[in-house]
Amino acid sequence: MENFEKEIRYKFKDKNLLKRALTHSSYANETREANKSNERLEFLGDSILSIIVSEYIFKNFKDLPEGELTKIRASLVCEKSLCAFSRELNVGNYLLLGKGELQSGGNTRSSILADAFEAVLAAMYLDGGMEVAKSHVLRFVLKELDNFQSDEVFKDYKTMLQEIVQRNPEEILQYVLADESGPDHDKQFAVNVKLNSNIFSTGIGHSKKQAEQDAARKALELMGQEV
């Protein structure tokens, strides 16, 4: 359990919560403790995950309509993503599985790993509160958001701005990091767009890429472009 606590970067006050989060129903049934599986924690974790992700994208993607926000959230909380998060944490190495489930490769099964991620999240929430849960989720979500292709969900404001600036070859466009603040799980970056060494606009975001896109969007607006 101590090794897994290192993986999740959190030390439990109530170790029984963590054990339950890692207990699959097959193991609980074999040991005749069906009421001690992680299924109830999974139920709670699903809701906590949705709240954290929804709040984050609502606050940080203010220009996107409800439909686009829903797409982003769905991609972040789907089984594929949660399974990937669990694999990064090596959850499969710590799961308590029934003999049959273990022999059939249950500790590598996507659905079991995804459910375990939600159960562990709920256990962290119950043991340490919402800030602990939020820090854990954003550790993975922020990386996923940076991996999105701009043409899949977001408008690529940087490319739009670059195309306009290139009409005048003598113009030089630069993105310069102006500021970085906040804790690791909730960093905020400020990036300046410079045109011929003059600051044209400043963007804010929870990653450098987001801040650059925000700065480019503001620059386009100042140019009178439709964004």
Name its key features.
mainly alpha, Ribonuclease iii, N-terminal Endonuclease Domain, Chain A
Count of DSSP strands = 3
Roughly how many Å is the radius of gyration?
A: 22 Å
Q: Approximately how much beta-strand content do the residues carry?
A: 5-15%
Number of helices: 11
Distance linking N and C termini: 50 Å
How many domains make up the 3D coordinates?
Answer: 2
Question: What do you see in this structure?
Answer:
This protein has 227 residues and is mainly alpha-helical. It folds into 2 domains: 146 residues, Ribonuclease III domain (Ribonuclease iii, N-terminal Endonuclease Domain, Chain A, Orthogonal Bundle), CATH 1.10.1520.10; 66 residues, 2-Layer Sandwich (Double Stranded RNA Binding Domain), CATH 3.30.160. The protein contains 11 helices and 3 strands. A 3-stranded antiparallel beta sheet has the order 1-2-3. Helix 4 packs across helix 5. The longest helix has 22 residues. The chain is elongated and about 75 Å long. The N and C termini lie far apart (50 Å).
How does the SSE layout of this entry go?
Elements: H1 2-8, H2 15-21, H3 25-30, H4 39-60, H5 66-76, H6 79-88, H7 99-103, H8 110-128, H9 130-147, H10 157-165, E1 173-181, E2 188-195, E3 198-205, H11 208-222
Helix pairs in contact: 2-8, 4-5, 4-8, 4-9, 6-8, 8-9, 10-11
